[in-house]
Amino acid sequence: MTSSQSPTYIYILLTNTGTVFTRLIKCFTGAPYNHASISLDPQLAELYSFGRKEARNPLNAGFVREDVYYGTYRYFPNTTCELLRLEVTARQKEAVKAVIDYFNRNKERYSYNLLGLLGVLLKRDLQIENACFCSQFVAEVLSKGGAGLWNDRPSALVTPQDFRQHGRLETVYEGRLHDYPELDKHKLYLAQANRYHARTAALKVN
């Protein structure tokens, strides 16, 4: 990269929603964040991971495009996070985007690698065809895009905490997700208002 070129980054978002499932994982890992997502922009407009497809059903999980305004996160407004960035070349970023696009086009073929989480605890590489858990997906996308971070471990043994500890990753923000300054405040307000009205309507029905 020449001095005339602006740096190019890929972003990795680590989160803790405080759900029963994440608290259970935290009991084993002791880490502050137990979910990882990958984004191509600092505004988190394109945010991808493997996780729950429905906010209230953690068992229905797979490849997802996450939405910090209207997706699962709107049900957990006190979600805490750490946003990391990785400097890459423009070619690597395009390659990573192509890998994500492949997952997106074939998302119905993929499922959540729940068994792989057990493999992490046992330090065994339990890769299952067409299945990932969140940090495995992020590590795999980076690797296939030519921006891999580890040569000494498979993606199925990478945890969210490993990203925090990697020397090539820089912390951009840490705190409450909805306080992240790059988010659209108007969209946040509308999402919160919609959630309030939905809850009010549900109470009236009951």
TrEMBL record:
<protein>
    <submittedName>
        <fullName>Uncharacterized protein</fullName>
    </submittedName>
</protein>
<dbReference type="InterPro" id="IPR038765">
    <property type="entry name" value="Papain-like_cys_pep_sf"/>
</dbReference>
